[in-house]
Amino acid sequence: MKLAVVAPEAVPFAVGGAERLCDGLVAAFAEHGHDCELVKIPSPERSFWQLVDSYQAFARLDLSAFDLIVSTKYPSWMVRHPRHQVYMLHTLRGLYDSYHGFGQPTQVLDPSPPVRRLLRVLQTPPGTSQGWQDVLGTARDTLESLGDDDPALIFPGALIRRLVHWLDRDALDPSNIAGYAAISRTVAQRKGYFPSRAHVEVLLPPTNMTELHTGRYDNFFTASRLDQPKRIDMLIEAMRYVEGPVQLRIAGTGPEEARLRGLRPEDERIVFLGRISDEALIDEYANALAVPFIPVDEDFGLVTLEAQLAGKAVVTCDDSGGVTELVTDMVNGRVVPPDPRALGQALQELTRSKPQARMMGAAGRRAAQQVSWDSVVGALLEPSSGPDGVGRGGDRKKIVVLSTYPAHPAQHGGQIRLNRLIRGLAQRFEVELVTADHGLDSTQVSYPYPGVRQSIAATGQDYRELEARLAAQAPVPVGDIAASLFAHHSAEFVRVLREATRGAVGAVLEQPYLLPLLSRVAPSLPYAYDSQNAEVVMKSALFSGLDGADALLQVVRTVEATAVAGAELVGVCSTQDRDQLAALSPTLADWILVPNGTDALDSIFITGSQRATNSRRWLAQFYAGSPEVTVERLAIFVGSYHPPNLEAAEFIVRLAPRLPDVCFALVGRQGLYFDNWVLPPNVIVTGLVGEPELDRLLASADVALNPIRSGGGTNLKLIEYFAAGVPVVSTPLGTRGTALRDDVELLVRDLDGFANGIRCVLDDPAGAQNRAERARALAELGYDWEPIGSAFAAAVETAFVGTPLLSIE
Fold it and tell me: Are 563 and 529 in contact (CB under 8 A)?
């Protein structure tokens, strides 16, 4: 296919994000086997006259020799072509969302006759076949009649704003455009950019820099044009609140350069690099401690993506537009108010905790690696008509994932599994995750990763009342069981799922509980069942001996048996789970082993003296001001508010007095269980912690514990311990679904011998380190989420659109 990418050329010429995007898009089309040219017209825009000339130049451009064209930025979409795809960077923002009147009224007052003629022509409805020619012709006549210095032709001003808005509406009218896309949700959602009923696909553009890598963590670095919207002045001011010798290195030039250099000349840590080569830019990214990037309402911010691909945390502001689509606070960077003090405090925190900066950078890199030209090219060649922000065209199919909780943010083991598997599915599908939340007044939609749309439906009063009645009669938490019984009573939940299933090739149940709702809404849609646990086995242990639990257990048994019976594919964490599920019902499903994993390759592996130093430092900080506590070693147990975890945590609390020199840290929502307990002085409850603090604990613990005695599936926490390098003591049941060996990757002890196992780890650091190194190798080889997620996605694709799989043995 012969393609053209159409764009304006800046006058004077400059190379920025728009130019790099266009070059990358042309190269990507070529790599996909198409003959593609970049068509550019110089487009000065310093006056009313220049802007009209630029719009007219593109309107007259004949590209009929091309099979398809892609326009990118005003005024390139003035080109007329039967297959015209818009991939919008932005409009002329000074006449849209950044327009503030400049002392001019929004209407042209007391117009002269030439202006009145132009205003009458601008009443022509956009989208008519000859309207644009009449408008541009009248605009030129107006200019020639009045001359450059007429007050009506002030630039920017009310008349040129009305003219440009009309020309853009006409050019972008659905009668002229085959499909709409934008480089970010920020651009897609700006008022007036697109026709009101247009479906706009969000296609994040990747960077063309292929050599980005991680190096040292030395200084703060940012790359930016030095002009007011980039707010470099705020960044310089923020350095007042950053202590120590860390530099702020600023690459770029621009009209604000002289003023910015004069703001704090006494601070030698602020270094202006000027324009630098791509090679130097890559080096600066590689050696940055973090990358602060704080523009106001940025369209996208390629700097963000480049920094993340270099493994660097990005610090931005909550009004920075497209940048905030890529940065999640305390996960892969910091998002703070646009205030120098808040910004400086965030930077200071990173200078004090380089491990935190590394962890955030690793999380950013994982997300940024999902952004590719393949999805952009596929969507532009074959635009989708799916829901906003979802459906990128090409050969990618849509699937729906149903879960009783969201995938993002991931705060406990089940969410982490769901999160990572969804990211694997997004490599092959457009993914719509549907879940619900009682606390919402309206449905919340987000796009946590490229190709993933998460809809959290508001359940409504009827659903909440039914669940409350069930909970009042039940001896245990019943939120998941209530979902299987009452989800269809939520009109909003039903609506959200019905919309999500339109055009989908299949669904994935992350738990069995929403199968009844799926069967009502889309009874013919094939589905896969990813079993996190054999639910009926786990609930049987949980309900054992409780009055009134038999009816609840029967609901679980029925819904899980039905899920197994009707699935095209069943994923299990272990062969033990497979056997337990297969006993529930005959099935024609294929089976696949999908063990719990971790981001092993991105986890920092810390052993030996560094771990001991981290442990002493953590304990000293936590117990500062409590000299009566004399603990010397740190043991951790990470767990959610889940019955097997609560059993294990209670065991640890009762064990702790036998090891008074050890601090036992209970990490996660399990801590809520002990709200009214008087705990031993060497037991602490951290509650739910963010990913950076969890990473810090994993890097500091002398030993990690897994005294599990009930439950199903594999223990995700165990693999996370291994990846981080923490020596582990576990019960035999805690190793279920794995190939772990006692005294090879960990110590395996029953509850009676657990205290002795902990002491063996603490008294034999060399042996503990050897086991930790073997455990890390096992985590990398068999339990890294990336290959696990890829294998699961391939199995799902085969189940819905391919040939049968071989069952696992």
Answer: yes
